[in-house]
């Protein structure tokens, strides 16, 4: 699952030379790790859950951490066997599936882990590791007893329907699961909306559509009602697709399931087009986001170069990491400056943003500036701050760095003769 993001991101600035190269860019790939250990609750007492509109739910919990030799640390995930005694296991149906049985070493070894840091020094400890995902030789559900459900929560993201389709088709064709429900309308759909039966036929072409066929919403998390619905419907596998707030809710749902001693597995599928999850290669929706961002950059470049001293300012998504902004910048080759949350920058003085803009305008007569939404948050004037607000999913509402930057650039007298184009 996704962990809560770092609450104190460090803003940064990326300069792109006129030949399309980025000087000293190696540090840009040392990005924030947003994948931390999944917590397992400590049940030596009553659980005090806070059910409400926000997803910032809390519980008593202890990390499930295993220590090994030479500084090896495994941040493990919770498992049914942690609280269901004498749980029987069964052979994985894939071993009898002709499409997979012929593949050698298809199953993941129980001891396989993935290192958080790839590059280490000879004398450094082995460091933090995570449990490797993939099919095991033994499973804890028989195919005919599985009753699965899928729910999507939070904002939209490219690829949501594809994820839904692959879960349904994978369960049906690979594991022989025939009872799959779709929960409509996010978390509140567990207790306030109807469900839909899902089969490979009903999801056959949904990957060609945008959005999510299940619908989505923010908030609506009532832990007791959700788990009551899961228990009443006989659901024993829950697939929850969503971002930070959604996965916090998924963790609390699992804790309540564990408190009740139910044999129910909860799988969190992280939804983030920002690509801000460590260890995995790429989050779904990221490629589409970069492609669309490049279109916006190209449009800004066309308009900026059409006027004297034109500046195209493009604000892109990227709450705590600048992957979309950085990849779109590299793909475009028309961007002069890219501001991302990982690199600090300042506006005035020698080496400041204003000095760089003036230099670029003198050299080229126009420029394109890309900024990730999370960059420069601490630079925005206190007069623009009211309080730390959160959305219904518990995410901090960011101040509009694009609007703020455009106003600051317009207010700079040395650049007032040009045209500022905000995309």
Q: Could you name the key traits of this structure?
A:
2 domains; alpha/beta; 423 residues; Rossmann fold; single chain; disordered N terminus; 5-stranded mixed sheet
- Fraction of helical residues: 10-25%
Tell how many strands the DSSP assignment holds: 18
First CA to last CA: what distance? 34 Å
| Secondary-structure element order, N to C | EEEEEEEEEEHEHEHEHEHEHEHEHE
Radius of gyration: 24 Å
Describe, in short, the structure shown:
The protein has eight helices and 18 strands. It has 423 residues and is an alpha/beta fold. It starts with 11 loop residues before the first strand and ends with a strand.
Q: Which SSEs are present, and which pair or pack?
A:
Layout (H helix, E strand, L loop, with lengths): L11 E4 L23 E3 L19 E3 L1 E3 L4 E4 L14 E2 L21 E3 L11 E5 L6 E2 L7 E6 L7 H16 L3 E5 L5 H4 L2 E3 L25 H11 L3 E6 L1 H17 L4 E6 L15 H19 L5 E7 L6 H10 L4 E4 L12 H12 L1 E7 L28 H11 L8 E3 L1
Parallel strand pairs: 5-8, 10-11, 10-13, 13-14, 15-17, 15-18, 16-17
Antiparallel strand pairs: 1-16, 2-3, 4-5, 6-9, 7-8, 11-12
Overview of this protein structure:
The chain is an alpha/beta fold and 423 residues long. It has 2 domains: 12-32 and 282-422, Rossmann fold, CATH 3.40.50.460; 39-270, Rossmann fold. Helix content is 24%, strand content 18%. It has helices spanning 160-175, 189-192, 223-233, 244-260, 286-304, 323-332, 353-364, 401-411, and strands at 12-15, 39-41, 61-63, 65-67, 72-75, 90-91, 113-115, 127-131, 138-139, 147-152, 179-183, 195-197, 237-242, 265-270, 310-316, 337-340, 366-372, 420-422. It has a 5-stranded mixed β-sheet, sandwiched between helices. Strands 12-11-10-13-14 form a 5-stranded mixed β-sheet, sandwiched between helices. A 4-stranded mixed β-sheet has the order 4-5-8-7, with no helix packed on it. Strand 16, helix 7 and strand 17 (366-372) form a beta-alpha-beta unit. Helix 3 (223-233) crosses helix 4 (244-260) and helix 5 packs across helix 6 (323-332). The longest helix is centred in the C-terminal third of the chain and has 19 residues, at 286-304. The radius of gyration is 24 Å and the shape is globular. Residues 1-56 have low confidence and may be disordered.
């Amino acid at each position: 699952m996704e962990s809560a993001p770092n609450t104190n991101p460090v803003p940064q600035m990326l300069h792109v030379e006129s030949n399309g190269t980025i000087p000293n860019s190696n540090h840009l790939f040392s990005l924030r790790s947003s994948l931390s250990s999944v917590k397992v609750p400590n049940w030596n007492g009553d659980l005090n859950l806070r059910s409400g509109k926000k997803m910032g739910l809390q519980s008593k919990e202890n990390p499930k951490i295993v220590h090994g030799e030479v500084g090896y640390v495994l941040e493990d995930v919770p498992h049914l066997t942690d609280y269901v005694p004498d749980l029987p296991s069964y052979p994985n149906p894939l071993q009898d599936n002709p499409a997979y049985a012929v593949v050698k070493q298809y199953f993941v070894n129980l001891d396989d882990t993935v290192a958080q840091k790839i590059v280490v020094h000879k004398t450094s400890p082995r460091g933090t590791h995570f449990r490797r995902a993939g099919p095991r030789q033994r499973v804890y559900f028989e195919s005919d007893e599985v009753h699965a459900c899928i729910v999507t929560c939070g904002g939209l993201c490219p690829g949501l329907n594809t994820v839904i389709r692959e879960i349904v088709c994978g369960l049906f064709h690979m594991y022989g699961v025939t009872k799959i429900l779709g929960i409509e309308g996010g978390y509140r759909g567990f207790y306030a909306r109807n469900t839909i039966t899902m089969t490979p036929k009903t999801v056959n072409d949904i990957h060609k559509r945008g959005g999510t066929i299940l619908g989505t919403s923010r908030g609506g998390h009532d832990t007791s009602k959700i788990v009551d619905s899961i228990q009443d419907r006989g659901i024993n596998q829950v697939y929850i697709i969503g971002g930070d707030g959604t996965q916090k809710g998924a963790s609390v749902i699992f804790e309540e399931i564990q408190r009740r001693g139910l044999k129910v597995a909860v799988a969190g599928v992280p939804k983030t087009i920002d690509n801000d999850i460590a260890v995995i290669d790429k989050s779904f929706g990221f490629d589409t986001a970069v492609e669309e961002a490049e279109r916006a950059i190209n449009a800004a470049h066309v308009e900026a170069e059409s006027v004297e001293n034109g500046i195209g300012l493009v604000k892109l998504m990227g709450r705590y990491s600048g992957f979309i902004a950085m990849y779109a910048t590299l793909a475009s080759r028309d961007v002069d400056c890219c501001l991302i949350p990982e690199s600090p920058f300042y506006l005035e003085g020698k080496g400041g943003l204003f000095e760089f803009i003036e230099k670029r305008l003198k050299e080229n007569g126009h420029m394109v500036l890309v900024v990730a939404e999370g960059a420069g948050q601490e630079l925005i004037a206190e007069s623009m701050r009211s309080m730390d607000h959160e959305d219904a999913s518990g995410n901090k509402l960011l101040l509009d760095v694009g609007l703020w930057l455009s106003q600051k650039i317009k207010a700079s007298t040395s650049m007032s003769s040009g045209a500022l184009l905000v995309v």
